[in-house]
Design a protein that fits this description.
Layout: E1 2-4, E2 11-13, H1 16-19, E3 23-27, E4 34-38, E5 55-56, E6 63-64, E7 70-71, E8 78-79, H2 99-136
Antiparallel strand pairs: 1-2, 3-4, 5-8, 6-7
């Protein structure tokens, strides 16, 4: 029989014969939590919940609840998913970022920024040179 510590999620296994007809108390080796083990009460492979796919009528009003979870405040309603939506076990969603294109754009922007900085520097130098030349210009003769 397999079981898991509810506190630290360490997985354990014990022979079914040792549990049959008994209630065992086992101390977790990791966190020292007391785990109650009963025949037929394995919680390792038990369902954790049910997956539901929905859309939202006002997705911009969803509130961040964690690293990748959101909650829907009052007034934001769940809508049925678009037709053809499916879940594939073990699949990983592709990124919506095209890395090569985005890196190319970033390089172009960096080059443009550098060029603009050089133009501004040249204009500043020209202004400074013009002021120096005006300061050195001979005054009117008397």
């Amino acid at each position: 029989m397999k079981f898991v510590c509810e506190r630290c999620h360490t997985k354990y296994s014990i022979a079914d014969e040792k549990v049959r007809g008994k209630v065992l108390k086992v101390r977790c080796k990791t966190c020292e939590n007391i785990i109650t083990v009963r025949e037929g009460a394995s919680n390792v492979d038990a369902p954790r919940g049910q997956l539901q796919i929905v859309g939202f009528d006002k997705p911009r009003q969803l509130q961040k609840d964690g690293g990748s979870t959101f909650t829907a405040p009052d007034g934001v309603n769940a809508t049925p998913p678009p037709p053809g939506t499916r879940v594939v076990q073990g699949a990983v969603e592709k990124s919506n970022v095209r890395a090569v294109i985005e890196m190319t754009r970033m390089i172009e922007i960096t080059r443009s920024y550098t060029e603009i900085g050089a133009i501004l520097q040249q204009q500043g130098d020209q202004r400074r040179n013009a002021l120096q030349q005006l300061a050195q210009a001979p005054g009117p003769s008397s």
